[in-house]
Design goal:
This protein is about 40% helix and about 20% strand. The protein is an alpha/beta fold. This is Class I SAM-dependent methyltransferase.
Length: about 240
């Protein structure tokens, strides 16, 4: 709540109309959070956190509308952790997603927290209960993996960005994801309220605000709350 209040006090003026539209006008899926929690319990997932469930009333209608006129959707997720957001995507859009995820989990040099020893196998046990027609996991940091994917010519229709919370890493993620995203595709940028990263220094909000300031002519703002959803309207010269 404190993060949200600080962010509202410094709201990006370009996002203010979309924030008001999202919070006050756009229909919300009020019962979906509880329904998804029941689904997770019934399927026996091994989730230890539910950090993003408060986003479900806002993101669920947005994603259903996005997917309504589409068949197969090429989906990229940065920051998979235990797989709870993947489970949500599978629940919302069953059998629609061809999935690629990027996460380093445990890395002795760059991500050495011991808890990640248990998170990675828990992730794969959870994913085994999902129903994606195609799935691949790339173990590594998105700032290293995304350039390889761009060089390989990969393209995506829907991208969920929830990796590092430092402004530097988020800026790199957004720059590459903007190039990997097809015209008409959507990027959902998580944790927009975070103005300072966990390790200090500027956070997600600063990166998202500055990215949109530079590339606003190439994206429509679909929603703003704790997340920002952008729809690509034209290719970015590069």
């Amino acid at each position: 709540m404190a993060d949200a209040l600080r962010a509202l006090a410094n709201i990006n003026g370009r996002f203010a109309p979309s924030l008001a539209q999202t919070m006050l006008v756009r229909p919300k899926a009020e019962g979906d959070g509880a329904a998804f929690a029941e689904h997770c319990e019934a399927r026996g997932f091994e989730f230890t956190t539910a950090w993003a469930d408060n986003n479900i009333p806002y993101v669920a209608p947005l994603l259903r509308d996005f997917a309504a006129q589409r068949g197969s959707i090429r989906y990229l997720e940065i920051g998979a952790y235990e797989g709870r957001n993947l489970a949500l995507m599978d629940w919302l859009l069953p059998a629609k997603l061809e999935v690629t995820v990027i996460d380093p989990w445990f890395d002795p040099d760059l991500n050495p927290e011991e808890k990640y020893h248990a998170v990675e196998p828990r992730f794969f046990r959870n994913v085994a209960k999902l129903r994606f027609p195609k799935f691949q996991a790339r173990k590594g940091f998105s700032t290293y993996e995304l350039p390889k994917m761009l060089e390989a010519g990969e393209r995506y229709d829907l991208i969920y960005v929830d990796g590092s919370h430092t402004a530097w890493a988020v800026t790199v993620d957004l720059a590459y994801c903007a190039a990997l995203l097809s015209v008409g595709g959507m990027m959902v940028l998580d944790d927009y309220w975070h103005q300072e990263s966990e390790i200090g220094g500027p956070g997600v909000k600063q990166a998202v605000d500055r990215f949109h300031g530079v590339f606003k002519d190439y994206f429509d703002v679909a929603a703003v709350y704790r997340q920002v959803a952008l729809v690509k309207t034209a290719e970015i010269p590069r």
